[in-house]
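Q: Entry one of two.
A:
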Amino acid sequence: MNSRILASAALVLSTFGLAACNNQSAEEVAEAPEGITGLTIENARMILPAVPANPGVVYFDLSYAGETPQTLSAVDVAGAESAMMHDNIKEGDAMKMVPLEPVELAKGASVSFAAGGKHVMAMNVSPELSAGGKTEVTLIFATGDKQTVNADIRAPGDAR
């Protein structure tokens, strides 16, 4: 019984820690310069949560052909209270979700945010977002620059 209480407490504390990862205020996002030369964002999609109180998930593919290395440090999702970058890693026989460190992009880099790997958790998704619509996903870089893409919104059971 004590181990269950400790595990529950650890889960609650880790959730608060994750909430602090990669958060920027709406003002900081709005004020950042728009556009990264050589950055392409494709196949952007948001999967709505099956249970409204659960997070949604955002996937996309990045490619970078710019000369100056870039570091993706955060993501903002319109219609979500906050967004956090995560990765799935294998630990022994189990998969574990962990906060994603900033993503370094050098010339020629390709990175996929896809099911089973890197992804963005969209917390407290607005009920105004609905399948078949679109939402803006803004990638924020360590330089303060950002790039926004329209993401298709999909229902929970749709293809990821």
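Q: Entry two of two.
A:
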Amino acid sequence: MEFEPLVKKYDKPVPRYTSFPAMPHWRIEDFESKDWPKQVKAGFQATTEEGISLYIHLPYCESLCTYCGCNTRITVNHAVELPYIHGLLAEWKLYLKALGSKPVIREIHLGGGTPTFFSAENLEFLIRSILNTAGLHPDHAFSLEGHPGNTSYEHLQALYRVGFRRVSYGIQDFDLKVQKAINRIQTYDEVKRVTDWARKIGYESVNFDLIYGLPFQTEESIRKTVSHVAELMPDRIAYYSYAHVPWFKPGQRAYSEDDLPKGEAKRRLNALGRDELLKLGYKDIGMDHFALPGDALYLAMQSGQLHRNFMGYTEHNSSFMIGLGTSAISDLGIAYGQNVKTVENYIDLVDSGQLPVFKGHMMSAFEQDSRAMILNIICNRWMNKADVEALPEDRKLIFKEMISEGLIIGEWDDYKVSEKGIQFLRNICSVFDPNFGNQPSKKLFSQAV
């Protein structure tokens, strides 16, 4: 079977598997917020010397990017910075109490929103305050998301001083017409400047986030974007599919659905971008991620150290992640918990001495085993023969069909994802997902392409 018909066949709604179970399958009715501190302690005690991860959500942006699906707060009032940072530190203090002993931090990721909305001074204060209360893993990895339009040399320098060595810039597309439609305007010169600054300061990895399927995108605009990528050669690329959910994110109503490339047109943009990135020498990590051969992410994949969580792919297998800030999600290895989504509610809760988790999911032993199996596919591209034999008969038929299509190949007594099958990792994982297909009729997941 030719590759293009396969892409069309498997272009259907599938979980992204940043968690298992996927959030629509969480049993939130069984979750009790009052029990969360006990789960935190139990999950922390089960960790080894690997260290813990921190995801810190900084929701503020000065303007709304209309494509964005993140939890944001739009304001130009920078007086909000310190009260929010004090809220983050109050929440961290509550977690330190729940952990029961001093943690060792291995990963920190600043996400948003726009982390560089905050001043360099305030970001450095936040990170130093956290690090002063914890140990630091010798092989730590700290990263931030930066807006090319407002990331300053001072931002990069201040965060470098406290251990940051990776930065991700949200580019999306270099075409001005597309940028105007999504209200995310930054010039090539601005992107080049912040990329050069990061490298001059000593950052070890620069990532560009790109999106295909945006309004007014064409094959020509994708080629233009990739040509600029070729001039700057970031160490990593995330080439995401745009998810159009205006009923969930009203900002996306700023343009018409008729302005979006859909179906075959969108699939061509995906194939074009992927092909061009591979020609430049990037390696396909999977799940929309690409990296140069010398980057730590590719090396982690080669050595079997690759991991995936709510921060995406990481090069450390940290099984315990605390999410700080509004809407942040914590992954304790045995449970998930999500914070309240509004700043006011969040501040009120942490100021009153309560962890701000409002919903979550307690994982059964079966779910933990299923999660390990799915992570193995995502990160190692490998499936155990016993797990395949345990599939229901209808899933076995799908699996055999994927073998006949060349997406999966047999190797000794086990199976692995072929090079051809890397683009279909989400579809392959869904075969081993006992929840997939049990969702209500309404659309819960984004298209695979």
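A: Comment on entry two: The CA atoms of residues 288 and 301 lie 14 Å apart. DSSP finds 15 helices and 19 strands in the chain.
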